[in-house]
Automatic annotation (TrEMBL):
One of its GO terms (molecular function) is adenine deaminase activity. This is adenine deaminase. SUPFAM superfamilies: Composite domain of metallo-dependent hydrolases, Metallo-dependent hydrolases. InterPro entries: Adenine_deam_C (IPR026912), Amidohydro-rel (IPR006680), Metal-dep_hydrolase_composite (IPR011059), Metal_Hydrolase (IPR032466). Signal peptide: none annotated. Residues 79-362 form the Amidohydrolase-related domain. Residues 410-571 form the Adenine deaminase C-terminal domain.
Length: 580
């Protein structure tokens, strides 16, 4: 198990020193490199020696031995450390491998990832085996440990057990606990969650909050409980409030909260001109949001908004590494660090022309290189979804007196149902649709209505959701059943049926939750899905997040969960699920 505990074995460290002694040649020599030295806050010229995945020397000397060494003349480029995404949700249709590879093309070569899908879908042994496998891809992958399921789960105490949470916290690839989406439970006296926070702090690991709209007093209380950082500030004043309470603030620019430009304007208006306690996150955006980049796009926005150039790069590199206590591995170009290096054409353009990740070229002179690493997902429990149960017209009976209405992409509120749904079809003259959530195992369902999702959608089925359960939406029950049947045939995914025909399908080959396709392929599919839904009355910007958050109980006001229709503010189940 030592290979799990230590980044490099003793024999590797001896080899690294052998390079300096002239007994071995480095594998790559970056000669005449002008690089960003964060300690000096200057651009410095040096030679950089790389052996395997590690920088073994930075300075004016050249190696004594150059046998089979790749020599790269870096004149004309500026070198910066690989960017770090500190708050990644790597299962938003994409999977951790495809996300990491695509992100690395834009210079984001380290990701700190949410483990929620792994916690809910895999037994611990398989999850940890997958984490070990993902060490072999060029990107550097780290993880969080969740303390709650972000929804109301049946028998949650048997899922988030003390033993499993403790084992995740103890894993060396896990850098933090959280995010604390169930923080109201903590305030209400949940001592088990508080104990897990205490354990994380004992292990010198960070705690990530999730405090949208929190008052100053609430922020202070959560700091006292042990929270270290929060990514939910949406205005300059909210950033200042968090800084005043001692938080590190992760500035967000995501598919549902593209806030960075305005936040930076507002914090500058407030006189904030120190950036050491800031870093960036795209917060698990949908695939198409990343069409033009990752953390590099945020650096560019920061520079355009007047953040000093070195601070802008620091917010994507060394600030993150220092916060997570991994500065000895990441965040700067220095001896001993992992060889994650971006090659830029100029300091104001953070999109790299070449990228080294763990000492391997993933992009060279503008050309994206193919990933040779293979993850056998089926070996880790991510095989094709197989449903051994049927859905019929008896499952599409609706009698609930109220449904839920979409306020925006992710906020839903209750509303009184006024439509007549006795004949099986709904009119296209209004924006109410049937809504069904069915247990993935076929044991329970809940039937209601959703207002504001679409006005001309016949049948829609998705195995992609926060809980992994199945969502059906539509105006016509026959098309809803048809979409479900096709979704079942393709092994899980998202399907749209219209007037007895399938007009769209997105196969999610990995357990019906995530795709095995490359990011460019997935972006194309997602954009097609969004256009089809918008043509049928979807007026918001991100249907993927809408699907994800139908059951997510960390946002107001009413949610459809595995326990039933749930009132967030009053913390009560209004209507329980029905056993099938």
């Amino acid at each position: 198990m030592l290979e799990q505990r230590y980044r490099w074995k003793n024999k590797h460290l001896r080899e690294h020193v052998d390079v300096l002694d002239g007994n071995r040649a480095p594998h790559i020599l970056l000669q005449n490199a002008t690089y960003l030295n964060q300690s000096l806050r200057k651009w410095i010229q040096a030679n950089i020696w790389i052996y395997d995945d590690r920088i073994v020397y930075v300075g004016g000397n050249l190696p004594d031995k150059l046998d089979d060494c790749e020599i790269v003349d870096c004149q004309g480029n500026l070198l910066v450390p690989g960017y770090i995404e500190p708050h990644s949700h790597p299962f938003q249709l994409y999977n951790p491998q495809t996300l990491a590879r695509y992100a690395s093309y834009f210079g984001t070569t380290t990701l700190i990832n949410d483990n929620l899908v792994l916690f809910l879908q895999l037994e611990k042994k398989k999850a940890f085996s997958l984490l070990k496998e993902l060490r072999n891809i060029p990107a550097s992958m780290y993880w969080w440990c969740r303390f709650d399921g972000q929804t109301e789960l049946r028998n949650e105490e048997t899922i988030f057990t003390h033993g499993d949470v403790k084992a995740w916290l103890e894993h060396d690839a896990v850098l933090q606990g959280g995010e604390l989406t169930a923080w109201p439970r903590l305030l209400a006296g949940d001592d088990m969650m508080l104990h897990w926070i205490q354990e994380a702090k004992r292990m010198r690991k960070q705690i990530e909050g999730h405090f949208p709209g929190a008052s100053e007093k609430t922020l202070a209380k959560m700091m006292l409980f042990g929270a270290d950082c929060d990514h939910e500030a949406m205005t300059g004043k909210e950033v200042l409030s968090r800084l005043m309470q001692g938080y590190t603030v992760s500035l967000r620019n995501s598919s549902i909260r593209p806030d960075l430009e305005n936040i930076l304007k507002e914090i500058h208006e407030l006189g904030i001109d120190q950036y050491d306690n800031f870093f960036f996150t795209t917060d698990g955006s949908s695939p198409s949001f990343h069409e033009k980049g990752f953390i590099d796009t945020m650096i560019k926005i920061a520079i355009e908004q007047g953040v000093p150039i070195i601070d802008a790069y620091n917010m994507a590199t060394i600030n993150v590494a220092r916060y997570y206590n991994i500065e000895y591995l990441h965040g700067n170009i220095a001896t001993g660090r992992v060889a994650n290096i971006n090659f830029l054409q100029c300091e104001t353009d953070p999109a790299p022309v070449s990228v080294l990740a763990k000492g391997k070229w993933v992009k060279r002179d503008g050309v994206e290189l193919e990933d040779s690493s293979v993850v056998h997902w089926d070996e880790y429990g991510f095989g094709e979804l197989q449903l051994d149960w049927e859905l019929d017209s008896n499952d599409l009976e609706f009698s609930m007196p109220f449904g839920f209405e979409m306020v925006n992409d992710v906020i839903t509120k209750p509303y009184s149902i006024t439509s007549d749904y006795s004949d099986g079809n709904l009119s296209f003259e209004h924006d109410e649709c049937y809504f069904v959530m069915v247990d993935r195992g076929g044991e329970w369902r809940i039937n209601t209505m959703v207002k504001g999702f679409a006005n001309q959608l016949c049948g829609f089925a998705s195995t992609y959701s926060n809980t992994g359960d199945i969502v059906l939406i539509g105006k016509r029950k026959d098309d809803m059943l048809l979409a479900f049947q096709r979704m079942k045939e393709i092994g899980g995914g998202i399907v749209i049926a219209e007037q007895g025909k399938i007009i769209f399908e997105m196969r999610l080959a990995l357990k019906g939750l995530i795709s095995d396709k490359t990011m460019p392929e997935l972006i194309k599919e997602e954009k097609e899905l969004k256009q089809l839904l918008q043509d049928r009355g979807y007026v918001f910007s991100d249907p993927i997040y809408t699907l994800l958050f139908f059951s997510a109980t960390h946002l107001p006001y009413i949610r459809v969960t595995p326990t039933g229709m749930y009132d967030i503010m009053n913390k009560t189940v209004l209507f329980p699920t029905i056993m099938r």
